[in-house]
Amino acid sequence: MPAVALESLRKAWPGVLAVDDVSLDVEAGEIHAIVGENGAGKTTLMRLLGGLTAPDSGRIRIGGREVRFRSALEAGRAGIGMVHQHFTLVPVFTVLENISLGREPRRLGDLREKIAQAAERIGFAVEPDAVVADLSVGEKQRVEILRHLIHGARVLILDEPTDVLTPVEANDLFRVLRELAGEGRTILFISHRLPEVLAASDRVTVMRRGKKVGTVVTAGTSERELARMMVGRDVLGGAANGGGREPGAVRLSVEDLTADSDRATPAVRGVSFEVRGGEVTAIAGVSGNGQRELFEAILGLRPGGGRVAVDGRDLSGLSVRDRLAAGLAYVPEDRLECGLVPSMSAEENLELGRRGAAGFRLPRPAMRRRAEEAIAGFDVNPPDPSAPASAFSGGNQQKIVLARALGGGPAALLLAEPTRGLDVGAIENVYGKIRAARDAGAAVVVTSSDVAELLALADRILVMARGKIAGEVVPGTTTEEELGLLMSGGGE
Questions:
Q1: How much is the pTM?
Q2: Which one, of 435, 480, 481, lies nearest residue 459 by Cα?
Q3: What are the tens digits of pLDDT across the range 193-236?
Q4: How far is residue 216's CA from residue 172's CA, in Å, rounded to a whole number?
Q5: CA 238 to CA 252: how far, in whole Å?
C-alpha cells in the first residue's frame, strides 16, 4: 500500500487547466522528485496534497485512507508538511514563535531545545530568538525546513528546497532527507536542478502542461532524458560560457562600500571592485555573507558609505529612481519581496521603474506591445499581459522580473539568483539573454547559490565572506567542489 496515492486529480482556474487527470503513487521511505517546465502544474499538484488548494475532482489517499483537507493545518495534523518556494513565516515573529505557530501549546524551553537539536543535526546555524524579518532568504528557508522536521511530518513536501543553498549545504540537506526516508517518512520535492534530482531521488515524475508525462526510476534515466520529457525537445543547456567580446571601459565602479544589516550590524565591510562593459563578474558566497546588502547598497535601497559610479557618474546621494535612470537594473533574490507587485498586471509590472514620476499615465498600446514582446521573448505562460502577477507560477513571475531588467538596455545589471525556480529550458533562454546583454556592452554582476551557474556565466568570480571580498578565482581554473568549499570556508 503506497504512503501517498493521488488518483485522477484535476484543478482548473479560469483560462488555466493547472492539473489535468494526474495520478501518482509514492511509497513510504521513498524520495520522489517532481520536475517539469515552469507552469507545468508541479506546485499546484503538491498544494493539492498539502491542503492549500482543493481539487476539482479526484481523490487523495494517505496510507490507504481517503482524505479531504480543508486547510494546510488539517494536512499538518495528518502528518503532511510543505516547505514553500515563497515563505509562510510571520516576519515580525521570532524563529521560535514561528515554529510554535499552529501547534498545541508547549513549553518554549522544550521547543528551543528541539530547534537546537534539529539545527545541529542538519548543520544549519539558526538563532531561535532572531526576528524572521531580519533573516536572509537562505536563513528563512532553513527555518521553514526545520519547522516541519521538528514537528515530525510523515510526508514532507519541498518546493525548490536548495535554491538558496550552496552545494555543501544541499548535500547536507539531502543527507538528512535520506535519513528521514530511512525512518519510513515519504519525501517529495520539486526541483529544476536535474543533477540534484538524479543524485537525491529514488523516482522522478515529469509533468508538462498540467499532465503527467511519466514516472521513471532515477537510476535508469539521465539528465538529457528528463530534460527531453520536460520540454519535448533536446535541451542544449548553458554549461559553458561562450566568451563574448573583449571587455571595454569600466561601467560599474564600487569603492569602499559599507552597509549594515537589518539588525544594525556590519554586513558590507569596505567592498571595492570594478566591472567593465562586456564582462560578467560573479559574487560567490554562502547566503547571509553580505551579498544581498551589497546589491541593495549599490542600488540605493540600503543606506551605506563609500562610492558607487556608473559610466564615471557618482551616484552617491541619488535616489533609487535616479540610479535606475542612470543605467542600473536589478533582479532581487526574492521576486515577491521587492521584485513584483502581485495585484498588478504583468504589463504594469514590466513598466515599474521605467517611467519614474510619470507613473502609469502611459500610452496603453505602446505598453501592451512592449509587454507582449517581453512575454514572448521569455516564454511567459500564460501569455496574457493583462493577467495579475499573482496568477503566474513562481518561475513565470521570475521571467517577468528578468524581462523588465534585461529589456531596458542597462549599463550595469545586478542579478541576484537570476534563475531561481526556472526549468532547464528557461535557464537556457535566460543564460542566452544575459550573455546578449553582456555582448551589448553591459557590466553584469551575478550572485547565485548555484555554483555551476556562476561557473557557466562568469568571466571572474569574487568570493565574499563576512561582508568582505575574500578572494578571486577564474572559471576554468577551479571546479564546482573547490568553489563550493571556498564559499563554505569563507575563502580562508
A1: 0.69
A2: 435
A3: 888 899 999 999 999 989 999 999 999 999 989 988 988 777 65
A4: 25
A5: 25
